[in-house]
Task: structure prediction
Amino acid sequence: MLALSNVYALKLLLLMLSAPVWIPFVKELWREFNLAMREDGGLFGPIPHPRKAKEIREQIAKEPSPQIHIPKGHLKLRQRNAPAATQRPTSGPQLGQRGPRRMGR
Result:
């Protein structure tokens, strides 16, 4: 019985000591979920009045998209400038020792 309470106390101690790592993460998740659900009143809030919901939708429309797209054109450039031998092997274990097969042959 005593050993079981020691294990429980160690678990609580570990949870408390690791709090500086997980509490900011949980707070940010809570803020993000409430922000995403604000049109419906948040996670546990009441559904907003239609006039307030319209204001929220207008506010959402003005905000920039949170999704980020970074084109990686340098990867295509590297493939275009690579020598032909490194682009497509003419023989090997995947292609058989005869080379690439053509359609209909």
Summary: The chain has a mean pLDDT of 79.
